[in-house]
Specification:
It is a single chain. This protein is α+β, with helices and mostly antiparallel strands and 323 residues long. The chain has helices at 26-40, 53-61, 75-88, 102-107, 113-118, 151-161, 168-181, 249-261; strands at residues 12-18, 43-49, 68-73, 91-96, 123-135, 140-143, 146-150, 185-195, 200-217, 221-222, 226-227, 239-245, 270-275, 277-282, 287-290, 293-297, 300-314. Strand 5 and strand 6 form a beta hairpin.
């Protein structure tokens, strides 16, 4: 494994961060078995149950350089931990303990966090991009999967209120309910590229019309397996955007069915773009969701921070070039 977690002493120091509420308690239940699996492959494990995201960030940020921080929880835990880990100079291993687990699925890790932990000796270190969104009220958040605006964010809000942990079915049910009431709005999407040595950005308009949603992806997936950024890579320094133009609810339903079957490129009235930066605004007040959690209101600016996170991933992960 490139950048092996097994140091000169023969055992890797692993900090296992656990969100005990993720997946309606799934992470809490599986944490002992995950720690045991990591120990079995040669790790010295310290387990910490986090109280909130600030606590998780603080624990990850205090990791020693070259240490391995494993995050057992949903997608909402992964990016804040990954960002803190990168600042500490440590390495990052996401483990699927939530409801959607999009990042782990896109990386190609096993669906079981115990199996993912057992696979550690077969993983290699890769440099993964980190997305960041900054909203109109100054709130900002990192993301590793997808930021959603419009139909998606309304559906995400419904899914987060669901009392049941049914994985992708939770998001599909929320989407079906949202289709009944939501009819979209006018969006304006601009793409930005660096210009000159002063760090200025040149903006150009990509879309300005009525539509259903905009997604901004780092890893290309959301909602427990809805792939709306089919060409997204985690090491190219770019964000993958999708815009569902105006159309009937059936067209939107078609897009989401196709997003689950690998055929989303053929969806009607769905268009794609790629850029290092993007700005999104809308005619109605909308909240940006990033990796399943609410961030803040539009307008919002998005950027890709290339090669930020030292991540352990399968050698043939689809998210990295040369895989």
């Amino acid at each position: 494994m490139s950048g092996s977690p097994f140091g000169s002493g023969g055992r890797a120091a692993v900090l296992l961060l656990v969100n005990p509420s993720a997946g309606r308690g799934r992470s809490l239940r599986l944490a002992p078995a995950v720690a045991e699996a990591l120990t079995a492959v040669g790790c010295s494990v310290t387990t910490r149950f986090t109280t909130d995201l600030d606590d998780a960030r603080a624990a990850a940020g205090a990791a020693a350089p070259e240490a391995l921080v494993a995050a057992l929880g949903g997608d909402g835990l992964q990016a804040p931990v990954a960002e803190a880990v990168s600042r500490a100079g440590a390495r990052f291993l996401p483990l699927p303990g939530g409801r959607g687990n999009d990042l782990c699925a896109r990386l190609g890790l096993p669906r079981s966090p115990v199996a993912a932990a057992r696979s550690l000796p077969d993983l290699e270190e890769r440099a993964m991009d980190l997305g960041r969104v900054t909203c109109a009220d100054g709130t900002s958040a990192p993301f590793l999967c997808t930021a959603n605006i419009g139909f998606d964010s309304h559906a995400n809000e419904r899914a987060n209120r669901s009392p049941r942990n049914l994985g992708t079915l939770t998001y599909l049910a929320a989407g079906a309910q949202t289709l009944v009431s939501y009819r979209g709005t006018r969006f304006r999407v601009e793409l930005g590229s660096p210009e000159g040595a002063a760090g200025t950005v040149r903006w150009r308009e990509r879309w300005s019309e009525h539509g259903w949603f905009v997604t901004v992806s780092a890893a290309g997936s959301c909602g427990g397996g809805l792939v709306l950024g089919p060409d997204a890579r985690a090491d190219d320094g770019l964000l993958d955007l999708a815009f569902q133009r105006d159309g009937s609810p059936l067209r939107v339903a078609e897009t989401f069915v196709r997003s689950m079957t690998g055929l989303v490129r053929g969806a009607s009235r769905l268009e794609f773009a790629r850029s290092a930066r993007a700005r999104v605004s809308a005619d109605e007040p909308l909240v940006v969701y990033a990796d399943g959690d609410a961030v803040g209101p539009l307008p919002a600016e998005f950027e890709a921070r290339g090669g930020t996170v030292r991540t352990l991933a399968p050698r043939r992960s689809r998210l990295f070039g040369g895989a």
